[in-house]
Structures are given as C-alpha cells and as structure tokens.
Amino acid sequence: MSNVRTLFNVYRANFEMPTPKKGIKGSLYAAFGLIAFTCIMLPCCLIVGYITYIMSLALMVEQHTINALLSEVHIISAFSMIFSMLVVFNVLFFSSDREHMVTLPLSHWQLLSAKFWHTYMAESIMEFMVLFAMFIGHFVAAAQSYGIGTALGPVQILSALIGTLVTPLLPLAYCTILSLLLITILKKVRNIKVFYHMSTVLLLVFVAIFLLSFRGMGGVNVNNYMDSLAGGENLFLKLCNILFFTVPLLGKAIGSGDLLSLLLYLLGNAVVVGIMLFLGYLLYQEGLYTAGALGTRKSKVDTDKLKLNSTSVFSSYIRKEIKVLLRTRAYASNCFYINLLWPVGVIILFSLSKNNENIQRFLQLYHEGYARAALILLLVIIFTAFVASALNSLSSTAFTREGAHVDLIKYIPVPYETQLYAKAAVALIVTYPALVLTVIIASFYVGWSVPWTLYYCALALCALILSIVIGMSMDSAAPFTLWDDEYSALRGNLNSFFNMAVIMVLAIFVCGITFLLFELTPLRILPLHLLILIFLFVLDILAVIFGKKIILKNMEELY
Prior knowledge:
2 domains; 25 helices; single chain; mainly alpha
C-alpha cells in the first residue's frame, strides 16, 4: 500500500497547475479563484440545494418521499459515468507516463490503484460539493415536514457525509471496469475508435431512458416528472436503482436512519471496487501492451477537405491550429464539436416545448410587442454569446495547447502579432458559425425578421470578441504547459475555469446594465437594443487595444 500511496502523491503533485503566487499576476489569480468560487461553484451548489429542497418538499406528502433525492443522485452518477469514460481510459492506457511507469519495480495492480484513486480525487471535487448541497436541501425539507429531531438523526447525518465522499466511486469504478474490458476486446478488433464512441453511446442510452420515463404522460415537463416520482413509476429511477444499486441503500439510510442500509451501502461500493481491482490484476498489464500497439497508430483527419489553402504565414498558422484541434480527440470533442451544443440545444428546446403553454404564451406576447419578452430574448442572446467562448476553452487554452513546446512561440520565424491574431481568428472561426446557426434556428422558431436576425448575429459577434480577448489574456499570463496528455491540458488548466467565472461575471454585468436601463430609464426597447450593441462595440475596441498589448507582453515573457 505504501507504493500506491507514493504513486498517488506523485500524480497529485503533477496534476496541479502552477499559478503565479507573487506580484500582480499572483494577486490576479487569487482574485480569479475567489470569483470562480463565488460565481460558479457556490451559486451552482445553492441552486442544486434549492431544487432538491423544492422537489423533496413536494414529495413529503407522498409515499415515495426519498425519490426526489434518489433521482438527482442518479442523474449526477449518470453524468459522472458519461464524462469520466474518456478520462479514465486516457489516464489508464494513453497517458504519456505509460512507458516510464511500466519499467518501474511496481506491480501493475499498484499502478492501476494509484491512477484510479488520483482520478477519483481529481474528478470529484465539484461533485462532492453538489452532492453535499443536495443532502442539505433534502434535510431542510425533511426538517420542515417532520421536525429536526426526526430528520437529523446521527445516522442520517453520518450517511449524508459518507455519501458525499463515496457516491462518485461507483460510476468511476464502472468506467474503469468498462475500460479494462474494452481494451481486451480492442486487442482483437484493433480499432480504438470503438472505445472513443463509448461515452457517446452511454449519453444516448441515459437520455433515451430519461425521455422514455415520460412516455404516455403527455410531454416532457417538470410536473409529469414529479408525478412519476411521486408514484414510484419513473423508468429512469427504476433502472438507475438497479445500475447504481448502492444509491437506494444510501437513500434509505438518509431517509429513515437505518444503520444496516448504511453498512450495506459501504459494502456494495467496496465489492464493486474490489471487482475492479481484481479485473485490473488480471487484465491491466495486457491492456497496457495493447494500448502501446494501438497508440502507434495515429488518428488521421482529412483536413484537406476544409480547403485551408495556405497563401501566407497567417493562413498557414491558422491551418496548423485547426489541424491540431481536429486531429486531437480531446480538443476535437471539447473545443470543436462542443459548439454544436448551441444549435442542437435550441432545436431540442423548441421541439420539446412546442406544446408548452408557457413558452407559447411567451412567444405570443413577443409578437404582440410586449417589451419585457423582447428584453428576455436580448438577455439570453447576450449571455449565450459570452459563455460560448468560455465553454469551448479555445481562447483560454490558446497557449496551453502548445504544451512543453510553448517556447517555440518565441523562436519560430513568425511575429508575435501574427501568432496572436491567428490564435484569436481560430477561436472566432470555430465558435462564431455555431452562434450564427443558433440565431438563425431561433429566428425560425421565434419568427424574427431578417434585420433582427442580423442584429442578433452582430450582437453575438461583439460579445464573442470580448470573451476571446479575455480568455487569451488570461492564458498567455500563465499557460499550463507541463500537462500529461491533452485531456489533462483541458481538465487541469485553471485558466479555463477562471475564464468561465470572469466571463459569467461580465455577462451578468452586461445583462444587469441592460435590465437597469430598461427599468430605470425612459428608453424604449428598440433604442435599448441599439445602445447595447454600441456599448459592446466600444468595449471590443478597448479590449482589442489594451488586450493586444497585454498578450504581446505576456508572449515575450514566456519561458
């Protein structure tokens, strides 16, 4: 066990991104951390806790009082399993330390154990906070309904604390087991793409089960979902109770204070982790050899179809950046294809809500000229345009993606200014078309005229440019270059997390100004739209002027 503990400490130290501690940059990063906590993590936990409180309170009068909490824990577990699949597989079989570690006098079981526990800690921090907020929300509802003495017994409190730390284990153990089995199968099929589609398959399966839960209920909405939970007939809940079989035991321990259920919950998780370690003992060494053989086969993407003909140094640099994004699975999925979330999300939203009375009433008010309806749409477009750039991490990893070769920025025969513009152009080229498509799709459902569609496209462009400048300024100040693999470059890069927090604050600030101008001034809705566009345009000019100077200075100071 000492070897496992030592390896775990080594992985933990290497995972942490070094950040400036002193001077102006140190103060800025401390401020970024505070903003990230107060503007992302804390609000997220408060919202989740409040939702759990409302759902639990609504079901307290029903027989299945714990089902609200169970359904939320199952949703968290399902998402954890979906998004951990690629991470686990990459950490176990395709990390850059694979060739070095297998030569050490360590058993492969110890190597697997250290990687598993490190991944568990690295991937579960936010999940711990969300789970804790869920349990708090449930306890508040239970105390309000049954009294503090009944709801907050010692076993209930202990169960919630243990559940906060142990719940993420089961999905991660499942991912590890699937990875071990898949790599064994891949030894014969010799096609690594089979695995990389596994997380997509899991996502589709869970979404299909969730949607099937509303079959015969007249539509997908909150009321139908709560009715199915109250009756104990929700298909998603039933199947997840089987898949994540320890969660109902935890729910019973929290709901009724049953100590035996808590012990069985711990035993069930221990058994699954034991099975995972046993399979690792049997399959991990052979899987590493298979991964070594598969790893020599480079993924090839036919980027020539993109017609990126190089006619200048600038266009050549753009071509290089786009090829890196498309040919690297981590970047392709997290930076490139994630932009499809916006147009696809709009289609799903309007398709599922076509019979929703509230949505239809809102659209009717908008077409009747109700100013507040137009204001709400304006605020949604502004917020989405800001967040889109932060979500795909293109600007906040512009320099991090260079990795250990970041010093080449200083030595290749390309001016700093040209490299800066090329990196910014790539973020714009990849992100903006998805936003334009989103606006066009929304205009089809909402019924915007062509001038209004063009206006919202211009508004999205202004917000996007501002977001790109901020993201590149942050990443150039302290790029995370000592990453183990491309997934680590995205997961371990605090610049992406801090950038999301800063962008959200900026988006809320702009939306707040828009709302206050509407409420406190005699401006009508049309002049307000024009004023906000001019305001963002002026901010863009200032950001480009001063941001360019900051980024160029940071590039000169890169090591």
